[in-house]
Design brief:
Chain A is built from 10 helices and no strands. The radius of gyration of chain A is 21 Å and the shape is elongated. About 34% of the residues of chain A have low confidence. Helices cover 64% and strands 0% of the residues of chain B. In chain B, helix 6 crosses helix 7.
Chain lengths: 237, 204
C-alpha cells in the first residue's frame, strides 16, 4: 500500500470557504484555565505522581505532580481574581480562600478570593529587586512549567507567595523571585511578577516597585493585571 | 513541536528509555496532548458545555490503559483513537442531543479582539454544522487528517480500520464536505439576495 497522501484541504481545496472554515477549526485550542479544570478533575483519578494504569507499567515522572483536584482551579481563579484589581472583595486576613469553579473563573473574577489590600509591616531588604519580566511565551506548549517542575508545583509556589503577601512581604518577594528563577517560561509569570511588585510596595520600596512595574508594562502591554498594578502603586492614605 | 510523538521507538531525551521502554505517565501525556484532544473532540461534535467532562473521560481511559499500552503506535495515535471512540460514545448517548450550530455566536468572546473572535466562532460553528453531515466514521477520518494533520497511516490506526478503508472514508468525507460547503454558500447568497430585494421594496 503506497498511496500518496493527498494535500490537505486547507492548502489544496479550491473552495475558499472550506479552506477558511478548516483553518478556523484548527485554531480552536483550550486556554490554560480550561485545561486546568480538566486537570483538576483528573487529579483524584490519577493520584500523586501522575503514573499510569493499575498495572503499574508506567510510573510518575514528577513528584507530587497532581495536587488536590479543585485546588489548581481554585488557585488559578484566585490568582487571576486577586490580581485583576478586585482587592476589596476578598476574604479577611487569615480566612482560608474558598475554592472556585472553572465556570466562575471563565465568567469573571468577581467572586474569587483576592489579596487583602491592607498594608503590612515592611520586611523587605533594601536591595533593588528590579528585574526584567520574562518574555511572553512563544507558544502554548511553553506556558507550562517545563524546566522547573510540574504545573501544579508552579501553582503551589505562586500560591505560597500570595499567602505570604500580607504578613510577610519579604517572603512573598523571595518566593516570587524564586518563581522567576524556577519557571522562566511558567504559566503564572505575570501573577508572580505582580506579587513581587505588590510586595515591594507593601515594604515601602516604592521606587523599586515602580521600576519593576514599568518593566512589566513594557513586557505585557495588554496584561489584565495592569489595573491591579496601578492600584498597588497608588499612594496609600 | 507538539506532534513529536512519544513513541517507544523514539524516546524523548528527557525521559530516557529503560529496558522495557521509556516511561509514559498520564501527567506528561495530558500536558502534551490534551489541547489537541480537546480540539478534536470539539470537531467531533462534543458540545462546549460537555467538553471538559469528555476530555477528562479520555484521559481517565488513557490512565487506566496506560500499563497495557504496547507501543505499536505512537502515544499520540493511541490517544487520538481513544478520543475518537469516546466522542462516538458521547454522540450515541441518548441523553445527548447533537449540538446544533447556529449562526448566532455565543456571548463569551476573547478579550483580545472581539471582532476576530466573533468571526472565528462563527466559522467554527459553520464548520461543525458541515461536519454534522458526516457519519462518525467518516468524520473521525476527516477530522484527524484535515484538522489534526495526522498522516493517513496513523489515522487508520487511530480509527482501527485498514488504510485503504481510511482513504475511502476520507474521499467520501471530502466530497460530502465540499457539497455541504457549496450548499451553505448558495443558501447565504440566496438569503443575501432576498434581503437586498426586501430592502429595495421597503425603500420604494
Amino acid at each position: 500500500m503506497s498511496e500518496r497522501e493527498p494535500d490537505r484541504l486547507t492548502d489544496a481545496s479550491d473552495d475558499p470557504l472550506l479552506r477558511e472554515l478548516l483553518g478556523a477549526g484548527r485554531k480552536e485550542l483550550p486556554d490554560e484555565a480550561q485545561l486546568a479544570a480538566v486537570m483538576a478533575k483528573l487529579g483524584p483519578v490519577v493520584g500523586p505522581g501522575g503514573g499510569g494504569g493499575s498495572g503499574g507499567g508506567a510510573s510518575g515522572a514528577t513528584k507530587a505532580a497532581w495536587i488536590g483536584s479543585a485546588k489548581v482551579v481554585a488557585v488559578i481563579g484566585g490568582l487571576t481574581a486577586a490580581l485583576w484589581g478586585m482587592s476589596d472583595l476578598g476574604p479577611k486576613p487569615g480566612e482560608p480562600p474558598r475554592e472556585v469553579t472553572h465556570t466562575e473563573i471563565a465568567a469573571s473574577a468577581m467572586t474569587a478570593p483576592v489579596v487583602p489590600s491592607a498594608s503590612a509591616t515592611p520586611a523587605v531588604s533594601p536591595s533593588a529587586h528590579v528585574r526584567t519580566p520574562p518574555p511572553a511565551p512563544s507558544s502554548a506548549r511553553h506556558r507550562t512549567a517545563a524546566d522547573g517542575g510540574s504545573f501544579p508545583d508552579e501553582v503551589e509556589l505562586v500560591q505560597q507567595a500570595l499567602d505570604a503577601l500580607t504578613k510577610n512581604p519579604a517572603t512573598a518577594l523571595a518566593l516570587a523571585d524564586e518563581h522567576e528563577h524556577r519557571y522562566p517560561e511558567g504559566l503564572l509569570r505575570q501573577e508572580a511578577e505582580v506579587i513581587a511588585i505588590d510586595a515591594l510596595a507593601r515594604a515601602h520600596q516604592t521606587d523599586a516597585a515602580r521600576a519593576r512595574a514599568t518593566k512589566f508594562r513594557a513586557a505585557y502591554p495588554t496584561s489584565p493585571h495592569l489595573a491591579r498594578i496601578e492600584t498597588i502603586l497608588q499612594p496609600k492614605p | 513541536m507538539f506532534f513529536q510523538a512519544l513513541s517507544f521507538a523514539e524516546p524523548s531525551p528527557k525521559s530516557p528509555a529503560r529496558p522495557t521502554g521509556p516511561r509514559l505517565d498520564t501527567t506528561s501525556l495530558f500536558r502534551e496532548h490534551a489541547p489537541y484532544v480537546w480540539r478534536a473532540l470539539r470537531r467531533m461534535g462534543v458540545r462546549e458545555s460537555d467538553i471538559e467532562d469528555v476530555c477528562q473521560e479520555v484521559f481517565v481511559v488513557v490512565h487506566k490503559r496506560l500499563a497495557d499500552f504496547e507501543g505499536r503506535s505512537s502515544a499520540r495515535t493511541w490517544i487520538y483513537g481513544i478520543a475518537m471512540r469516546t466522542a462516538s460514545d458521547y454522540r450515541k448517548r441518548a441523553s445527548h442531543v447533537r449540538e446544533v450550530a447556529t449562526e448566532t455566536p455565543p456571548d463569551e468572546l476573547s478579550r483580545d479582539d472581539p471582532h476576530d473572535a466573533l468571526a472565528a466562532r462563527q466559522a467554527r460553528a459553520t464548520l461543525d454544522r458541515l461536519l454534522d453531515q458526516l457519519d462518525d466514521d467518516k468524520r473521525a477520518v476527516f477530522v484527524l487528517y484535515e484538522i489534526e494533520e495526522l498522516p493517513m497511516n496513523e489515522v487508520a490506526l487511530a480509527v482501527g480500520c485498514p488504510l485503504q478503508t481510511a482513504y475511502s472514508r476520507l474521499h467520501a468525507a471530502r466530497s460530502k464536505m465540499a457539497e455541504a460547503a457549496r450548499a451553505y454558500a448558495d443558501a447565504h447568497l440566496r438569503r443575501g439576495a432576498a434581503a437586498g430585494t426586501n430592502e429595495k421594496e421597503r425603500r420604494s
